[in-house]
Amino acid sequence: MSVFVFFAVLGAAFLHALWNALIKTGADKMTGMMVMTLVQGVVGLFIAATRDFPEGAVWWWLLASGVFHSAYKLFLAYAYDHGDLSRVYPIARGAAPMMVLGLSFWLLSDPIAGMEYVGIVVLGSGILMMARGVFANSESARLVPLALGSAMATAGYSIVDGLGARVSGDAVAYVAWLFVLDAVFFTPICFALKGRQVMTFDLRIWGLNSIAAAASYGAYAVAVWAMTVAPIALVTALRETSILFAVLIGWLAFGDRMDRQKIMAAGLIVTGVVLTRL
């Protein structure tokens, strides 16, 4: 992984933490997620119109991606109803690299050095340590299976999109179409679960979640591009440094408690990032 790709993925990690924080500020997380998804879908459609139409084989990857992304947002929205940003986010993002790493032994052919594997494991351990507080502080246990469901979907779309973008040969067009399909799949799910009240015409909500959409789109576009030029498991792990940004945002913006366990976990995460660069 080159230095440029390394810092590009770190920038994407910050944007990812930012859009999660914006969703967390909303009273109705499902409404916020749906508005963000609709805005992304419209932007994706405009961008897709400027690119060549994907070939037949690419659509299988895109359809699978749309399903995984919709599941990811669904689980995440419900998880944020039951826990703080600094608790849900570590579990949802932390388990994904371990899942991708395990699957990469059988599904992927990317060359990853031994020290990079160590870095991924250390990074994942730090993120999982960050999540232990959900039990230590008697917080709602319901967020755990929801966050793990989000992590499973994250692992799924990470592998699907990394391989799909390579098959496509055009990461920009691939990302545009996956956000279009995500909107097509996720919007009716929201209406089915929440009814008409899930839709809002509040300009403040649309404005806030449009910013979230821009951050989310930018973050994932960079990530998918990075997965076309660097090992998928390594990019996926490095993206999880977004937990550092999320913890800081949770502490400064939401007043989440910063304890010794969080500081130790943050140290492990930083160590894992350094190891992936050796």
Could you name the key traits of this structure?
single chain, 278 residues, mainly alpha, 12 helices, 0% strand
Radius of gyration: 18 Å
What's the tally of helices? 12
Strand composition percent: under 5%
Helix content: over 70%
Secondary-structure-derived class = mainly alpha
Question: Overall pLDDT, averaged?
Answer: 85
Total beta strand runs: 0
Query: Outline, from the CA principal axes?
Result: globular
Major β-sheet annotation: none
List SSEs in N-to-C order. Answer: HHHHHHHHHHHH
Low-confidence stretches: none
Query: How far from one another are the termini?
Result: 10 Å
What are the SSEs and their pairings?
Elements: H1 3-25, H2 29-48, H3 56-80, H4 85-107, H5 114-131, H6 133-136, H7 143-168, H8 171-194, H9 203-227, H10 232-239, H11 242-253, H12 260-276
How would you characterize this protein structure?
- By secondary structure, this protein is mainly alpha-helical.
- It has helices spanning 3-25, 29-48, 56-80, 85-107, 114-131, 133-136, 143-168, 171-194, 203-227, 232-239, 242-253, 260-276.
